[in-house]
Amino acid sequence: MSVSTPKSKSVHLAKRPSDRIIPGETFTLKTGEAPKESDLKDEEVLLQSLYLGLDPAMRGWLNDTRSYIPPVKIGEVMRGFAVGIVKASKSDAFPVGSYATGAVGWTEFAIMNSKQLERVDIPHNGKITDALSVLGITGLTAYFGLLDVGKVKAGDFVVVSGAAGATGSVVGQIAKVKGATVLGIAGNDDKVRWLKDGLGFDNALNYKDEDFPKKFKEATKDLIDVFFDNGNTLFIPYEQCASYFTDSEQVGGQVLDLALGRAKPHARFVICGASTTQPRPKVQK
Hints:
By secondary structure, the protein is an alpha/beta fold.
C-alpha cells in the first residue's frame, strides 16, 4: 500500500503587472511536495501558514525598480508575512504547537530559521490574526511613527489621512490614549461614522465631499500639531500622478497640501504611506 506524500501549495509571481493585478496572469498557483521534519537543520522550524498578510507595500515589491527592498523575482514565491503553527522544530525557542510570524511568503508550508521568526503569544481577548495587523507590521508602523517620529503628547491636535486603513486606524487610537484630539480623513461616509462611533475619533471627514477643503479648514481652526500622512503624493511628479488619477482622486497630495497650510510652527509631519501613488484604473470621461 503506497503512502501519499504531503503536498504544499504556494503562490508565485508569473508576470509583473503594469497597472493592477490581473487574476490568472500576475500570479500562478503551484503544488509541490511539502517539506518534512527530516529536512530540518539546527535552529530551523517547519511552519504551517494559517493566515497570509496582504499589505499595500506588497504591490510595490512587484515593480522591477530600485527601492528599499529588492523586487520579487519572476517565478519566486510571493513575498509576504504570515502567521502559522510550528509543526516540527529543531529550535528550543519554537516548540511544536507554538505560533510564529515572519516573512514566510505565500506558501502553505515553509522551513524557516528561528532568527527569521517571532513567537506569537496571543493576549487576553486577542486572536491569532492580530499578529498580522494591530500587533504586526502595520501596528508597529503606527506605534513608532506616531511616538518616535510624531512625538505625540497630551493636548496635541493630530490629523490622520487614510485613517480607516490598517495603520491609520491604529494611529488614531494611540493618539487618543496619549490624550490628543484626533481628526481622521477617510474615503466614504461609512468609514467616517466608524472612525467616530467605533474608534472614538473626535472628528472625521470624507475627502470626497465637495466641500472638503472648506470643512477641513473649519475642523483645523486650532491648527495641527501632528499630521500622520498615509497617502502622500509629495514625491511623485505631477505628470505621473495625472496618468493615474483624475483631479478628484489625487487625495494624498490634496490633503497633504491642505495640512501644510494649517500646521503650527514646529508641527511634526509623519510621511508614512503612499496609497495614492499606487496604480489605479484610468477613468473614462
